[in-house]
Task: structure prediction
Amino acid sequence: MTTTAGNADYYKAWRDQQHGYKARASLAARDIGPIPAIASVERRESCRQSLRTFCETYGGSAFYLGWSLDHLKMMSRIEESVFQGALFAFAMPRGSGKTTICRLAALWALSYAHRRFVFLIGATSSKADEALDSIRSIIRSNPIYGADFPEIAFPVQAIQGIGQRATGQLCLGESTLIEWSGQITLPTVPPPPNWPELWPLRADGKVPTSGAVMKTSGLTGEGIRGSLITLATGEMVRTDFVLLDDPQTPESARSKSQNFTRLSLISADVLGMAGPGKRIAAVMPCTVIEPDDAVDQILDRTKHPLWRGERTAMLTTMPTNLAAWDVYFQVYSRCAQLEPPSYEESNAYYIANRDKLDEGAVASWPDRFDPTEVSAIQSAMHLYFRDPRSFWAEYQNKPIPSHGVSVFEELKEHEIERKYSGTKRQYCPNETTRLTAAIDVGSRVCWYSVVAWDENFGGTVVDYGPWPGQYRQYFTAADVRPALPDLPEFRGYDETAIVYAALGQMVEYFTSRDYPRIGGGDMVLDRILIDSGKWTETVYQFCRSSPHKLILSPSKGFGITATGRPISEWARKDGQRLGDNWRIQTEQKARVVSFDTNHWKSFLVRRLKTPLGSRGCLRLFGEPGVDHSLYADHLTSEYRTEASGRGRVVEEWKIRPDRVDNHYWDTLVMAAVAASVSGLVWSPLLAVEGVQRRQTVAEMLERKKQTRRG
Result:
C-alpha cells in the first residue's frame, strides 16, 4: 500500500525532473550555438575602408544606376566624417538616394566598429524609427550581408523578429546581451571560426562590434538627451556618430521660431552628444524647403563654418532656350492626355530638336531618367513642367519664396542686426533731439520700442522688449513664459483689467527712468503711441485717465491700398490735425492718431537700408555681439508689392506666410509716426546734402504747445 509520504516524495521527484527537463530544453532553445563562418572574408574586407563598395556589395537593388559625381563626393565626405569626426551636411535632389546611402553608412560604420554608438535623428520620431526599421531589415533579411557578417546577423535571425526572444539569448552558454526592441544593441559573441588573425578582437576575445548601439529619436524629442547609456556589462557608451536625416518638416521650415529651435537643438544638444572633450561625427542628408530655413542656414558655411555644407541640383545649369521648351511642352502635354498616355511623339520631337533644347543645360546625374524618357535633362524638365515651385525646392535646392518674388530689394535680417549705434541700451546719441515710444497691446504680452530721433529722421532704437520680460532670447507671442495673466499682481483679473494695468506699468517704466544723451543731459519722451486695435475702449480710457495723458495717444493704422483714399483726401472736421500720412481725429472719447501703415513701413525700410554714416540712417543700440535677431525677425516679417489705382502707385505690405509675429515692426512704425506728430519732418534734400537741420526757437515753442495739447 502506497503511503501519503511516498506519494509526496514521488511527486517531488517527478516535479524536479520536469523542471530540470524544461530548464535544459529552455537553455537549449535559447542557445544559438557557435557563430557560422564568414562566407567571404575577401568580399567583406574590400568594403572596410570604402562606403561605395559597401553600398554596391550589400545595398541590394537600391543602386541600379551608375553613380554621379555628386554621389561619389558625398560618400567621400561621409568617410571623412566617420574616420576623422567631421560634420557634413548635403542637400541633394529628391530621389537621388541620399537617405538610403546614409542609412547604409550608419550600418557600415557600426559593422566594422568604425563607430560604437550611432544615433539616428529624424525630423519626427516616426521618421527616425523608419530609418532604424530599414537597417533592421538589412541585418535580418539581406542574404549577402548576413553571410559576411554572421556575428551580427546570425543572433538577430535567431530571434526571428520577435524582440522578447532577445532577452536571455545565449551563445555557447554565455548571454549575447542583444537588444532588438527600441534600440539595437549588437550581440556580444565570440568570433566566427575563420576570423582572420589580423582582425582585432576585444580584450575578452569577443568581436569588436559586441555591445555596439544604434538608437533613434525625433529632433525635438527627449530621446536626444539619452546619448549616454550603460550596457548590461556596466560599460558606459556615448554617441560618436549621428545621422540627422532631413531634420525639418515643411511646417517647421516656414516658422522662424521652429527654425531657431531646431538650429539650437542641432548646435547644442546634438553636437554635444559625444561629451566633454570628445569630437562627434555627424552626417546630415537634407532638403531646403524655404529660403533661410534651418537647413538653408546650416548649408551656409559663413553662418555655420563647422559644418561642411554642400548643395547640389538636378540641373547644374538650366537650359538657355526656355522658349524652345515651351513648344516642346505643348507636344508633351498632348502625349500625356492620350488614352493610355504615349510619349513616342514627344520623344521623337525631343531627339530631333535635342541640340536646341539641351543648349546650356548640364545634368548632375546623367543616368537619372526613366524608360519612357530619353535623357536626364529631358526628365528634369518634365519635373519643371509639372510643378516649377516644387522643382526649384525639391530638385534644385533653391526654393522660391512662398510669398512670391518681390520687385523690391527686400530688407534682410543681417542688415538690421549689424546696424549698431555703438551706444548702450537706453542711451541716446548726441545728435538726437526727440524721443518717442510705442506699445503694441495684447492680453498675454505687450511689445514696445523706444526710439531717439535726429532732425534728419534718422536715429537709434534705444530700447525695446516684451512686457512682461522673458528669460529666453527667442520666443513667439504664443509661447511667452511668463504671460501677463501669470503675474501674481494680475491674478483674478479679466483680460480688460490686465491690459489696463499692464499699460500703467509700461508707461510708468518709460516715464520714470532717465534716457541719458551722450555728451550730457537727459532726454524725455515727447510722445507715446498705443495701438488701440482690439482694445479700443480700454486704450481710450487709459490715455484719458493716465497722469501722463499729455504725451499719450491712442493710434490706429490703416493699410491704405492703391484703390483706397489717402488720408489727405479724408473728410476734414474741426479740431483735426493733418500730417505726413497721419491724422489726429477728434472723437468723442479720444484724440486718435490714424496713419497709413503702407506709407510708413516703406519709409522705415528706407531708413533701415540707409548706410551707416549717412543722414536718415536708423540704427539699433549696442555694439557687435549684441543679439538683435528676434527684433530683426519681426522687422522683416512682411513683404511689399507694387499696386496701381486711382492714378497713383502704392507699395502694399503683407505678412509673410512663414512668419507669426510682427509686433516689434508695428511698434517701430508707430514710434516713427509719433516722431512726425511731435513735429519731425523728413526732408530728402537735407538727407542728401548732409545738412544737420537745427530747430528754431519758434519751432521748439510750437512743439511744446503741441505736446501740451496732446
Remarks:
- The longest helix spans residues 4-30.
- Confidence is low (pLDDT under 50) at residues 403-408, 686-701.
- The chain has 24 helices and 26 strands.
